[in-house]
Amino acid sequence: MDIDVREADPDAANGGFSKLNCEPCDLLSNSSCAKSCSRGRLGGLMRVAEILTSIASISLSLGIGAMSPSAAAQEQKSFRFSTSSIPPRFNLGSLGGPLLGTQPAGVYDKLVAGRASANGYIPWRIAHDNGVDGPRGNDNSNPPPASSSPAPAAVSAPAPEPAPSSIPSSGPPLSFNDARFTSAISYSRLDNGVPDGGSLTDRSYIYYEVGDNTVGCWGSCTLRRLRIQSRECIRAIKGNIVIADSYLEATGQGDDHADVIQAYGPGNHGTITLRNTSIVAHNTSATAGIFVADSWKPDLIDLENVMVQGGPFGLRLHADGYMNAHLRMKNVCFVGPFPFRKFFITDFIIDEWTNVNDCVIQNGQLVIVKSIRRP
Predict the structure, then answer these.
(1) Which pTM was predicted?
(2) Within 13 Å and on the Cβ side, how many CA atoms surround 189?
């Protein structure tokens, strides 16, 4: 069954309620009756005092007495009242106030204002989560049930583990001994370099005799499944250099420059395309993992599924005023530390910057730590 919620009786004779739902203490007042309330405020206060005194006398004569501190605390806590310890219940229809609306039986509510006597009844200002609010009999109050046990302590969510890299599993080799090099044949330094249009496949180089490049591309060349450990790995002179499925690591000595890949040929045009390749540099006598400068005109530096690890700089790319230098980066992991910067890029047009991240190597896999904002 629904519960009626009505305004209090506008009859001022009923316990001191005045017109327009004003009462002596303004507990249930509204702005439209402010003037009426102010004129009768003093007389109303006196009537309320008389009524409260009468209620106290009735309670004492019935042997009700004052509530114990624990009972008072329970009343204050939950607004749950026993009909045996209050005056007669408030009959919502007996005061004749206009109907404000109804609330379904069983809805939860809370007390939001004190009580005032009206002809022996005690209405309370009640608020509900939804729908109409207004005075109701206090023995009809239905507060939310108190929890029988304390709420469990909040447990902090565990810190998320780093996400695996989205670089494909066939991405860059993370060590010199990667399985893709099982067919690689060992060679010494390639003294004459790769001729324009030439290629090298399945080769292994460990060479620290001199600080010059181990493999030089004098023109366009394609290098597949190369693994190199030396003082400088690749020199790009001009043309289109493509390197795929390779592991390149440079460790400098003395006065070395110790770049893993260096583009050098002032005034020459060229492109460098890397796929599924690791660039590993160190900090001794070194500059960068990939170094482009000295007026070499980089039409395109294109890195996809690439790891750049270590070195004072990971990438140091300078177009030196060339206005058509382009850079594309997709699925690139930077694995530090980088004492200077992970990349230092000037005068390049960035065509793509997708899934470029700071990463770590865990259990033989690249793991993303955080995304790197496009410069």
Answers:
(1) 0.58
(2) 17
